[in-house]
Amino acid sequence: MALSVTLTQAQALWFLPAVLPLCLAVAWTDLSRMKIPNWTTDGLALGFVLLGLFALPAWSDYLWRFAHFGVMLAIGIALNAARVMGAGDSKFLAAAAPYVALPDAQLVLFMLGGVMLLGVAVHRTARAIPALRNLAPDWESWKQGKRFPLGFPLGLTLIAYMVLPFVA
Question: For residues 30 and 153, is the Cβ–Cβ distance under 8 A?
Answer without folding.
Answer: no
